Amino acid sequence: MKHLLTTIVAVSVLLPALASANPATLNHPGRLLASNCFQCHGTDGYGMEHLAGERASEISGELMEMQFEPARQDIMAVHAQAYTAEEINLIADYFSKQPK
């Protein structure tokens, strides 16, 4: 009975997240990298500062600018400085493919 209850609770928590996930990007190579962004920006890009459907070049350009702003020490700059240009492009591509 305990395992059944645990399973029911797990499914009830996971189903809404899976139902709202964009099937086209579930296996996107940038999804895992973008998972650091999900807390604020949401898995679908609709959290704080909407990223969903924005041009990938705009997202990556802003992140790359943050890498070279030494005076900027907020959470976005810290995250941006941890990624390579290739990783930033994958993250930007992931969010750009989310429906607006």
TrEMBL record:
- SUPFAM superfamilies per the record? Cytochrome c
PROSITE patterns, per the entry: CYTC
Q: Which residues form the signal peptide?
A: 1-21
Keywords in UniProt for this one? Answer: Heme, Iron, Metal-binding, Signal
Molecular functions (GO terms):
electron transfer activity; heme binding; metal ion binding
**Domain Cytochrome c positions:** 17-99
Tell whether Acyltransferase is among the UniProt keywords: no
What InterPro entries does UniProt report for this protein, alphabetically?
Answer: Cyt_c-like_dom, Cyt_c-like_dom_sf
Q: What is this protein called?
A: Cytochrome c class I
Q: Which organism is it from?
A: Thiothrix fructosivorans
Question: What taxonomic lineage is listed for the species of origin?
Answer: Bacteria, Pseudomonadati, Pseudomonadota, Gammaproteobacteria, Thiotrichales
